[in-house]
C-alpha cells in the first residue's frame, strides 16, 4: 500500500530517518503521542501473532494480544490514539475489488485446488493467508474494555472517510507521529505532524534477568561486576512484546515529510504529485481500471528508486525552467501536471490515441487528490470542537451530509454517537455514503454459491430497510435533476477556476510562504459537486438500490439489491411502528430483530446476553438451510446436523486458547464451509443489531469465537459440551430442520480386499451363495 517503492527507498536512505528509544525505567515527563492506523495494526498483529487463520480466526486470543501490545506501549511512555477507516470512497472501489480478488478469492481458490496434505503445510498457509473476517470486531471490543490504568492513555477515533488523511490531521493537532504500514504517511502532511513510524521497524527489547545461583554446598566463585550496565536481549521486530514486561524498551524509526521533501529538493506540497506519478493505490495498474500509467512513464527494467529519482528530477527541471527569463511560466498545478506527464512519457505523443494523454492526466489528478486534507475553519488546536467530530466543525464535517437526507436530527444524533463510540460498523456507513455493501469474504468452497448471498443477504435487507426508514439511503444518480447540476457546473468559467480556489484556500500567513499547490485541484472538484439543495428535488417514493460486492465464481461482482419497504417487512412478522423503527423503544427494537430472525421465543429471550447471539445465529442458519433444501434436493447436504450445531455452541461457551493442544484438527471441506456460514451470519446479525442501536442488548459473539475450537469438536478431537438450557433454546423446536447424523466412512486397511459389508466367514460354493442371498 502507499507509493510504490517508497518504503524501500526510505530504508535504503537511512539519513532520512530519525531513531528513537523508550525505556520503562526512564519514562519521560511528557508522553510521546502516536496515532496508530487501526487496520495496519490489525493486519500486522495477526500476521506476527502466530495464531492460525485457516480455521476461521482465534478472536479471544487475538483480543488478549491487542491488550498486551497496548499495555506495553503505555508502559514505555506512549500515548496512543487509534484511527479506523470510515466509509470507502468510490474512487477506491477498483482498488478494493482488486485486493479482495488477489487476497481472498485467489487464495481461497488455490487452497481448495491443493491437496489436503499440501495445504496443511505451514509454509503454504503462510503464503495463502486470508485475514479472519471478524478481527475488527474483536479489536474494538478489546480497546473499549481496557482497564482504567491503561485506558487513560488510549483513545479510539473513527474517521469520517478514509483513515489516512484523518490520522495525519489528528496527529498534526496533537503533535504526534503516525504508526502504520503505508508509505502514504510520509507523503501526507499537516502542521504539527511529527512523521511516520513503520510498524515493522518497531523493535522490542527486555532487560536480561540475572540467573539465580543454586543453593548448595559447592564452592561458588565470587565475581565482582565491572559495571552497572544491564544487558539487553532483543526480541526482534514486530508488535508483540516479550512475555516479561519488566525492563521493557522500545526502539523505533520515524520519517518526516519535511525531510523527504528537502532530500528530493521538492516543495513539500508537491509530494502528493510525486507519489501519484510514481504510482499509488489509485494510479498503479494493480488497483485501477484502464492502462498501466506507470508503463507509459518508465522502462520495464527501472527500479522503484530510479522511478522516484526520475519523477523528482522531471518536476524540478520544469519548475526551474519556469523561473528563468524568457521561459514560459507554470500556470498552476494543472499546467504542472500536464507538462510533467508530457515530459515523462517514453512514447511519442503522436503514437498515442486521441484523448489518451488527457485520460492519463485525469488519473494523476485523481490519485493526487486523495492526499488532500480538509481545511480547518478555525485556528484552534483543541479536539472535539463539537460532539459531532473530533477535528471538524459541522459545516465541513463530511460525515453529516450522508446522515442528513431525512432531516431527522434526533435519529442522526443517535447514529452519529453510536459511530463515534464504536457501536456502528464503518461498513454500515458505506450504505449511507455510496449505497454499497461489502460483506466480509473468507475461506469458502469456490464451486458453491457464496454464503454471503444465501445466508447473509436476507438479514442485510432488513438492515437496509431500517436504515433507509431512519436516515435515507442514496438513490440512483440517474434520478437526479441533471439539468440543475449541469447548469451549476457550467456557471464556473474555466478561466476563473484558479481564482476561485486561491480565495478559498489561502487562510494564513504561513501558507503564503509555502503555497498549497494542490488548491486548484480541490477547487475544481468543489465546482463540480452537487449543490446542497439538489437532494430536495428527489422524490421520497423512489426505491433505493444497494450494490453488494460478492464473490461470483472466481471474481468479485456487483449485484444490485432493491431495498424492501419497511412496512412490508414489519407486516410479515406481525409488527407495526408509528414511526421509524429506530425511534421505537429498545424492547420493541429487540422484538423486531428476534422476529425477523425467527427466534422470538421465551427460551431464547431468557438466555444470558453472551449466549443470545450464538442462539440467534445458529437458529437462522438451521432454518435457512432447511428451506433451501426443501426447494432443491441438491442442497440437502447443506443442512446442519444436531452434533454440528452443538459444536458451534461449544466453540462459544468455551473461551479456549488455541495453544491448549498441539494437535491441529484436520482441515475438512465441509467443516470449512460450516465455518464460513457461521462467520457470515455472525457479521450480518451484528450489523443488524447495530443498525437497530441495540448492540448492548445483543452483544457480538465474535470476540469469544474460536475457529480452532469449532473444528476440534467437528472432527471429534474434543467433545461438544453445551449447557442444557442453551441447547434446548436453539434446537428443541428445530428437530425437523436438522439433517440426520452422517455416518463416518470406514477406510479400508492396506492389503485388505474385504469390504465391511461382506460377512466375516462367507459360505463357499453355490449353495452358500444362495444362503447368503436369502439371509
Automatic annotation (TrEMBL):
Organism: Mycena citricolor
Full protein name: Asteroid domain-containing protein
InterPro entries in alphabetical order: Asteroid, PIN-like_dom_sf
Superkingdom per UniProt: Eukaryota
Gene3D superfamilies referenced in this protein's UniProt entry, alphabetically: 5'-nuclease
Family the UniProt entry places it in: Belongs to the asteroid family.
